[in-house]
Design a protein that fits this description.
Elements lengths: L1 H25 L7 E2 L6 E6 L6 H15 L5 E4 L12 H12 L4 E4 L17 H12 L14 E9 L5 E12 L2 E5 L4 H5 L7 H25 L3 E5 L33 H14 L3 E5 L6 E3 L13 E5 L14 E6 L7 E6 L12
Parallel strand pairs: 1-6, 2-3, 3-4, 7-8, 8-9, 9-11
Antiparallel strand pairs: 2-12, 5-6, 6-7, 10-11, 12-13
């Protein structure tokens, strides 16, 4: 009991100064989970898997300045605030909070495996303690981060496993609507979704996976009820979509969505639920993730008969390339036009100050 009480005390002590700062921004926050831009186009910014090094800390500062120089409705970081081999110190989270709250637009975030799952690689840390810290620091209120926060819907049901062994709210799972487009984040992780690497946790996975599937289904149900013209989902893991990417993702049968590479499969049930929802929705669905650090936009999801789902687009954001410093410390601008047929149009943003191979003229 004393150990549990001490852990909670440490968590409150860690979170308090930063929550106080966040509260200042809430005074200027919107009071709804939707932003009324019906029929009007707007732009958002996507990034993730940063920063992994001191050079990339500088690069992220440049990246944020670049995003702030453009008129964005909001930004989303799709996980991994540091490298998987580095320590899970409190400074990692506090620096990230400073970055997010320096963004002019509302700033969203979904955790990555380097932030908590992979913290078990160091015996001084516990993955679920780290996830509890993230929930307390980044997800304590129903508002986003950033200088102009946006109110979001939160998965408040106690469905996820906390460090004390009890079920807690999956408060990192968020949903919001801007201009007839529904957006949602889901806590889907690399490292086999916490079923492999150091100290895998099947019980934690099972609880969170069920919660993610529920949140996914509710998101599409709400999008349909609201008459949304598109859905964008943001998660951290690259779950693997087929057998064509052995260097950057799990290999799986594209028809059955079963993993074929012999590793524990933490994604099949989730991917099957995703596919069912995409087919039923029929309108454009963008699925944004990081994890494998390879910028790409493609259509890898097939139905059970092997036919490509025309309304589904996978978007992987830029990510860490430590060997080349700030070379891939870039972001993706998405133009959202609810009146257009495909709704989303993509513009990679190469930050002038972060160019390495070909310096900015």
């Amino acid at each position: 009991m004393k150990q549990q009480q001490s852990r909670k005390t440490r968590l409150r002590t860690f979170a308090f100064p930063f929550l106080a700062c966040a509260a200042i921004g809430l005074a200027h926050a919107q009071g709804e989970t939707s932003d009324d831009r019906d029929g009007h186009s707007y732009a958002i910014g996507l990034w993730g898997d940063l920063p992994y090094s001191a050079a990339q800390v500088v690069g992220v500062t440049n990246l944020i300045k670049d995003m702030n120089s453009q008129r964005l409705a909001f930004t989303v970081h799709d996980g991994d605030l540091k490298s998987g081999s580095s320590e899970c110190t409190d400074s990692v989270y506090s620096m990230a909070l400073e970055f997010f709250n320096s963004l002019e637009a509302a700033a969203m975030f979904t955790p990555g495996d380097n932030d908590w799952v992979d913290c078990d690689r160091n015996a001084a840390y516990n993955s679920l303690v780290q996830l509890d810290k993230e929930r307390e620091l980044f997800f304590r209120t129903p508002f986003s981060l950033g200088r102009h926060p946006l109110r979001q819907q939160v998965q408040t049901d106690p469905l996820c496993l906390g460090a004390e062994g009890a079920l807690v709210a999956c408060s990192e799972n968020r949903r919001w609507t801007v201009g007839r487009v529904t957006y949602a984040t889901l806590n889907v992780q690399g490292s086999c979704n916490n079923l492999c690497d150091t100290l895998p946790n099947a019980a934690e996975y099972a609880a969170r996976n069920a919660a993610n599937i529920q949140w996914l289904k509710e998101t599409f149900a709400q999008a349909t009820a609201r008459g949304s013209v598109a859905v964008m989902l943001i998660a951290q893991a690259n779950p693997g979509w087929d057998a064509n990417d052995p260097n950057r993702a799990p290999l799986r049968d594209a028809k059955t969505l079963a993993e074929t590479d012999g590793f524990p499969d933490g994604f099949q049930d989730y991917l099957k639920a995703l596919r069912d929802q995409v087919i039923a929705f029929r309108k454009p669905v963008a699925y944004v993730h990081g994890d494998s650090h390879y910028f790409r936009i493609d259509r890898p999801l097939l139905d059970a008969a092997g036919r490509r789902l025309e309304n589904f687009t996978r978007v992987e954001t830029f990510g860490d390339n430590q060997a080349n410093g700030t070379n891939d410390t870039q972001w993706l601008k998405v133009l959202v036009d609810p009146s257009s047929r495909e709704v989303f149009a993509y513009q990679p943003q190469i930050v002038p100050a972060n160019r390495v191979a070909v310096p900015s003229p």
